[in-house]
Design brief:
mainly beta
Length: about 160
């Protein structure tokens, strides 16, 4: 009885350690690229872009899967602008629980992409992520991707992009 209890404790500790290791992990490798910005001053909203859609159970392969439309955001402020993105996506795992993330890219560079939540095999999982970055004057593209570690399906999604100066 003591040996089985010890085995259970060791197994539980391994699960907790593996999940806590993912907590600080970044699927995009963004530590080498764009970093999220800290916004401490008041910002003025210039424009809001919003997209909602339904993947209708489309297959997502293990890895990075673009979804939704590429949005082009135009910063006309000579001092530059801030792009703030709030995204959510509903997914369902096919065979096994898997770590997942929402990846937000501005001009092709991911802005930090922390693991969000394990995708459940028994129901839908909704992931949420909000981040922002300072940009220069001109046009900038914003794209979203779902990162999954095993095959998963895509369902509802929403992406809100706000442009501030």
């Amino acid at each position: 009885m003591q040996k089985s209890t010890l085995s259970l404790i060791v197994a539980a500790a391994a699960v907790l350690l593996s999940q806590s290791a993912l907590a600080g992990a970044d699927v995009s490798g963004a530590r080498k690229g764009a970093q999220p910005e800290a916004f401490s001053a008041g910002l003025k909203l210039l424009k809001t872009y919003f997209e909602t859609g339904n993947g209708n159970g489309a297959a997502l392969a293990a890895g990075f899967n673009p979804y939704g439309s590429t949005q082009t955001v135009n910063c006309t402020n000579t001092a530059g602008c801030y792009i703030i993105v709030n995204a959510n996506v509903q997914v369902a795992a096919a065979a096994s629980v898997n770590p997942s993330a929402i990846v937000i890219k501005v001009d092709g560079a991911a802005i930090n992409s922390p693991f969000n939540t394990p995708v459940s095999t028994t129901s839908f999982t909704v992931m949420n992520y909000q981040t922002g970055i300072a940009v220069t004057t001109g046009n900038h593209t914003v794209t979203t991707e779902a990162y999954v570690s095993t095959p998963t399906t895509l369902h509802r999604y929403n992406t809100e992009i706000k442009l501030y100066k």
